[in-house]
Amino acid sequence: MTLHVDEPAAQHADADEAVLRISGLSVDYGVGERAVRAVSDVSLTLRRGEVLGLAGESGSGKSTLAYGLTRLLAPPGVVACGTVIYHPGDGSEPVDVLALDHAGLRRFRWAQTSIVFQAAMNALNPVDKISAQLTDVIKAHRPDLDRAARIARARELLGLVGIPADRLDSYPHQLSGGMRQRVMIGMALALEPRIVIMDEPTTALDVVMQRQILAVFTRLRKRLDFSVVFITHDLSLLVEFADRIAIMYGGRIVEEAPAAQIYRDPLHPYSDGLLHSFPALRGPRRELAGIPGSPPDPRSLPSGCAFHPRCPKAFDPCAREVPILGAPGEAGPGAAQGAGGGARSVACWLHTSDRSTA
Amino acid sequence: MRYFAQRLVFYVFTAWAAVTINFFVPRLTPGNPVDSLIAEYQGQISTQAVHSLTVLFGLDKQQGIFQQYISYLGQLARGDLGISFHSFPTPVSSVLAQSLPWTVCLVGVATVLSFAIGTLLGVIVGWRRGSLADMLMPITTFFASIPYFWLALLAIAAFTGVGSFLPSAGGYDPGLVPGWNGAFVASALKHSLLPAATIIVTSVAGWLMGMRNMVVTVSSEDYVTVAHAKGLSERRVMLGYAARNAMLPSVSGFGMALGLVVGGTFLVEYVFSYPGVGLELVSAIGQKDYPLMQGIFLVITLSVLAANFLADLAYMALDPRTRREG
Ligand SMILES: Nc1ncnc2c1ncn2[C@@H]1O[C@H](COP(=O)(O)OP(=O)(O)OP(=O)(O)O)[C@@H](O)[C@H]1O
Ligand code: SF4
Ligand SMILES: [Mg+2]
Prior knowledge:
The complex is a heterodimer. Helices cover 27% and strands 20% of the residues of chain A. Chain A is α/β, with parallel strands linked by helices. Chain A has two domains: 17-112 and 193-357, P-loop containing nucleotide triphosphate hydrolases (Rossmann fold), CATH 3.40.50; 113-192, no CATH class. In chain A, strand 7, helix 7 (207-224) and strand 8 form a beta-alpha-beta unit. The longest helix of chain A is centred in the middle third of the chain and has 18 residues, at 207-224. By secondary structure, chain B is mainly alpha-helical. In chain B, 73% of the residues lie in helices and 0% in strands. The longest helix of chain B is centred in the middle third of the chain and has 38 residues, at 182-219. Chain B starts with a helix and ends in an 8-residue tail after the last helix. Chain A binds chain B through residues 70, 72, 74-75, 102, 105-111, 114-115, 117, 121-129, 136-137, 140-141, 171, 173, 184, 187, and chain B through 130, 219-223, 225-234, 236, 240-241, 244-245, 248, 318-321. Iron/sulfur cluster (SF4) is lined by residues 268-270, 305, 307-308, 311, 313-314, 318, 323, 348-350 of chain A. Adenosine-5'-triphosphate (ATP) is lined by residues 29, 36, 38, 56, 58-64, 76-77, 233, 298 of chain A. Chain B: It holds the Pfam family BPD_transp_1. Chain B: Residues 100-311 form the ABC transmembrane type-1 domain.
């Protein structure tokens, strides 16, 4: 509402058009004195048609961020502060997701933002047929469609993800893990949302299945043109098909850059470590180094840069002060905020000239 | 279907075992079972009873044990459970036919109601965790913790007596002849209100707590989160996703409870002088009416099996994972 600068441009579908703007989002588990901050001050912009990768070790707050921005946090999780603004792209007013009332939130969910959960999880209701689970969401959002139309749509969705239509009458336990995950992807596309959040969609699947699912997914994305937040701890996977990558550590974004730049030239020592923790799926094999030590407990984050106890390059200021996310080598944390596709930002004292005073 | 067949075989086998044990146990006593019973009762036993015993054990026909077993099975198949000592020469099956409907109607209906009410409340309390609905838990648990006997006596003291609508004892007004007429049914209903209420009040907490805990557990399942994320209505998520899965364990418990309807109601019927199987069993024990006791035990065993079989069927209908093809 306050930024009128880019208003004329926003009417058009240029590549930089934002679909989702997250700013200053913090998520706590618990309230009051015992609150644990699992996500701190995260600002991210998801652009139209873009795959935004979110990587980080277990416990870095990736899922918490995803749940927080979709308002799916289970108690005791609460969004402590920040805003999540959704831009519908049809010329209508931006939506403040965190301020939606119940009915508004219900309409927003799945129609605009759907989620694919981790493959190993039982995201499908074990007592209902696949058809029921594909059609109930259509029924809830498209009351104008009759039963036959809903079933037809469910068939079509299974077709999209390469599952024979006769599987509609199956129960989840009758499908393999990979099939279940493809059903979930089909389900996520049921209402043609503009954003699909995928939380480790292929973790726990074998490599063949992983490739298959990603292939299906890439094909669909070309066809349906939705934006994706792709969460994984496997950075090499993201390097392959994300447009931009944000690296999380201890609840903060520590680096954000175009995928190619992260791959070729990671600035944050943690990104560097993460990149060398997994074998690349394609291309020349890199040496696997891993990162010594273990991820921090959000209840007792290290002072300063949370990564400093594990960082091979830690120096003077690291333990004292939190490095602020900003463009590398430049002054002022605002430098990279809302910047275009090529911009990158990092939170590390190595790449800060004079940010401590900002 | 395989599962169904497996269960069926299991229950048929168990029923057969129960029947067989019922046949052999009295015969394991050394010597002639009739003689030993007569010896035990020391002349208090009438000649009629001696005759009934002899017939019951097939001793009148001088058969071998296997022959006896076969004719015992044949008798059972015809619903012949022998002849009651005490109400000689009424067959045990007739005595049971009089008392069984009372028990099944009162305790059976009360159990079903208790299950339905408790489960429904459990869903609400579990779903709205942390709201005022939580108050229900300590209240119902309080009632469940009072010994049934005591609660029933208190209820009789508080709600019956001179001028009260509710009677304190019996299954119907003594002046009426049992039959399917308005006056009798109304009277039977009136007599069942207080005992049914005491049963429900003491047992509802169990269902409520069980269901509540399951709903809380299931609410954190991924498919419930997905259901929320899909923007389904709260009611649909609560009933179609959370409650639907949460009630599966309750169904087995419900089968168990139904099975205990016939066997576990002695206290209720005793306190309210209710003309059911429990009271019948008490008097059978008091009067050493051996054939009647045996008949009642058999009915109890078989009803437990039947109820569990029904619960299995319900479980199969509710949980597709048990319906494995093969
Ligand atoms: N319900 C909860 N109560 C308290 N703390 C929690 C809760 N859920 C998560 N956390 C904490 O929040 C932090 C972030 O968890 P989150 O699940 O978001 O991590 P993640 O990056 O998704 O990890 P993973 O790769 O294992 O999925 C963790 O350190 C965890 O201990
Ligand atoms: S700020 Fe210091 S400790 Fe943190 S990543 Fe950079 S160099 Fe390492
Ligand atoms: Mg996670």
